[in-house]
């Protein structure tokens, strides 16, 4: 049996350590530059996040009571401005809806009274209206004017198919173009909206007939 040589054993262990270190170096050499950069970034990410959080906390902690009060006041003011803008939009929308409903109501009343208004115009045209009846008719006209109702249709004005309904064509040797000869029933409109076109007799140049 051979004797145990301590020196040879120690030298053998040194060789094993050298081989292990050499393998680590080779593994490091095989790592690509991109992988090394990625590992470096991953290692630095937690520290950057911690740094940002610490910076934010430090900024909040650094606010004085007056600074905090100003920041809260700015937030409240912004919220108040948003609420005010929403309220103004709501109020404008409601106002437009009210105007539309009001116009619809006026149109309904006017449409229902058109036959009576036509009778009043015929009586007025034939001079068969006494003073008391004239006063009532004038009040009716003013009431509709108050609600934006405009009466139109006059003899001699140019014929406009968007405002006039020609119920009869009358040749006229003196006419150079189509005009209103006689208004049979007056027209009514609210703004640009025609409620009823004026029903008229149209004077046309005689050559066109």
Keyword list:
209 residues, alpha+beta, Nucleotide Exchange Factor Grpe, Chain A, domain 2, 3-stranded antiparallel beta sheet, 3-stranded mixed beta sheet, 4 helices, 17% strand, protein homodimerization activity, cytoplasm, GrpE_head
Could you explain how this protein is built, in words?
- It is a single chain.
- The chain is elongated, with a radius of gyration of 48 Å.
- The chain has a 3-stranded antiparallel β-sheet with strand order 1-4-5.
- Among the domains are: 84 residues; 59 residues, Head domain of nucleotide exchange factor GrpE (Nucleotide Exchange Factor Grpe, Chain A, domain 2), CATH 2.30.22.
- It is of the alpha+beta class and 209 residues long.
- The protein has 4 helices and 6 strands; from the N terminus they run ααααββββββ.
- It starts with 5 loop residues before the first helix and ends with a strand.
- This is Protein GrpE.
Strand line-up of the largest beta sheet: 1-4-5
Count the helices. How many? 4
Category from helices, strands and their pairing = alpha+beta
The residue fraction in helices comes out at 55-70%
**Spatial extent as radius of gyration:** 48 Å
Taken from the alpha-carbon principal axes, the silhouette is elongated
Strand fraction equals 15-25%
- In terms of per-residue confidence, which ranges show pLDDT below 50 for 5 or more consecutive residues? 27-31
Main sheet? 3 strands, antiparallel
Order of helix and strand elements from N to C terminus: HHHHEEEEEE
Extended strand count? 6
Instruction: Compute the average pLDDT.
Output: 78
N-end to C-end Cα span? 148 Å
């Amino acid at each position: 049996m051979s004797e145990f040589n301590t020196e040879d054993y120690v030298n053998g262990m040194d060789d094993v350590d050298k081989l292990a270190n050499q393998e680590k170096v080779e593994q490091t050499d095989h790592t690509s530059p991109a992988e090394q950069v990625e590992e470096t970034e991953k290692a630095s990410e937690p520290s950057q996040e911690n740094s940002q959080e610490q910076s934010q906390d430090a900024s909040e902690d650094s606010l004085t009571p007056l600074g905090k009060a100003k920041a809260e006041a700015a937030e409240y003011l912004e919220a108040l401005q948003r609420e005010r803008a929403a309220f103004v939009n709501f109020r404008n929308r409601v106002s437009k809806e009210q105007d539309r409903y009001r116009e619809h109501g006026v149109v309904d009343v006017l449409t229902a009274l058109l036959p009576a208004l036509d009778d009043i115009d015929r009586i007025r045209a034939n001079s068969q209206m006494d003073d008391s009846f004239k006063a009532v008719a004038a009040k009716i006209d003013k009431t509709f004017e108050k609600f934006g109702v405009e009466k139109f249709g006059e003899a001699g004005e140019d014929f406009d198919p968007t405002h006039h309904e020609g119920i009869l064509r009358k040749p006229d040797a003196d006419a150079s173009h189509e005009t209103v000869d006689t208004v049979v029933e007056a027209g009514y409109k609210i703004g640009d909206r025609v409620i009823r076109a004026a029903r008229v007799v149209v004077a046309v140049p005689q050559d066109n007939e």
